[in-house]
């Protein structure tokens, strides 16, 4: 196997950060939070069947190869796993998001029921456990993702200006028209604007894009040998924080040697153990998928929710001015919620150890049993989920996962990031003294 150069400082690769915004240095803590608060039991990291002998490349050349990759057509199977170290919620997450369970989740929009097939709800289920997905793409206007379950399947299909989603378990479908992948406004007509379905990354390429946006001078990037993934020869690109205090240990991306397409993404925490996120192709074909792959018609008897119907209530809500509106019952001593309470976000530090600081609405900490706001049993559960800490800032509670940690102080401030508990306390102390 060809030798590989020692670790490369990414300050030499500034020209590679095509389209990266100034704030991109904060993307990994935030994007990884979205991916984690948003992703993956565990697929063995970068499972290989031998290390192929490939020509030597530098980290800069490999990042260029990824940036230049223009894979428009593919189909295959992806296995995605998350292990955030959280207790299992079973089907609760999907139930809350969908407004209920089973075939009765659809309900009436005005009653807040929503649709069991709504992508914003369904794809969030990828945030925990292990899932198998079938994916297909044919250019920017045709994509399909199917989540395979034990006795059911959920499919999200984008074909031209239409998006269909179908949940076979509940026999519900979700339909949106006027969709444009560019993010531009769709055909308004009488139905409002069509928007892309919100969800978490579902392929190694989407995960890798988020990680590469955060590459800056706080990051070490190197090529660490080769691998074979889904029968394809690949280089292994390793991304690591240079700073101490991050919960991110390393990110490994297996990059297809021929196309530059990321085939596998693995995020390992600094604490060690199983990967927090592991997503990779187990089968992949870069040929053109059959046109029928992207055809869909709802089965007979399926409940169909139109996107404009489902979003009508939210558009009405969005159009109103709620500044200085009281969302609580003043008769019960509630505090007034103001729009400006959400506009005090600050970012402390940079790169992998950046921390978001914000105030909770109302300027007070978590409700407690002592204040009469929380039942004693609920307080015990809350206490069991967090660690009590104190410092110059006062006292508070740290809620932890294997990747994202958040400190909620008793005076209503929140410090959150992909950093250790000690880093949060240090940031809160520094902010208090500032």
- Overall average pLDDT: 74
Roughly what percent helix? Answer: 10-25%
By CATH reckoning, the class of the largest domain would read Mainly Beta
Strand content: 25-35%
DSSP E strands, number: 19
Order of helices and strands: EHHEHHEEEEEHEEEEEEHEEHEEEEH
Query: Sheet with the most strands?
Result: 13 strands, mixed
What is the total domain count? 2
Describe the structure using short key phrases.
single chain; 434 residues; alpha+beta; outer membrane lipoprotein receptor (LolB), chain A; TATA-Binding Protein; 2 domains; 13-stranded mixed sheet; 6-stranded antiparallel sheet; 19 strands; 18% helix; disordered N terminus
How would you characterize the overall build of this protein?
The protein has 434 residues and is of the alpha+beta class. The chain folds into 2 domains: 284 residues, Clam (outer membrane lipoprotein receptor (LolB), chain A); 104 residues, TATA-Binding Protein (2-Layer Sandwich). Helices cover 18% and strands 30% of the residues. It contains 8 helices and 19 strands. Helix 1 runs antiparallel to helix 5. The radius of gyration is 23 Å and the shape is globular. The termini are far apart. The relative contact order is 0.16.
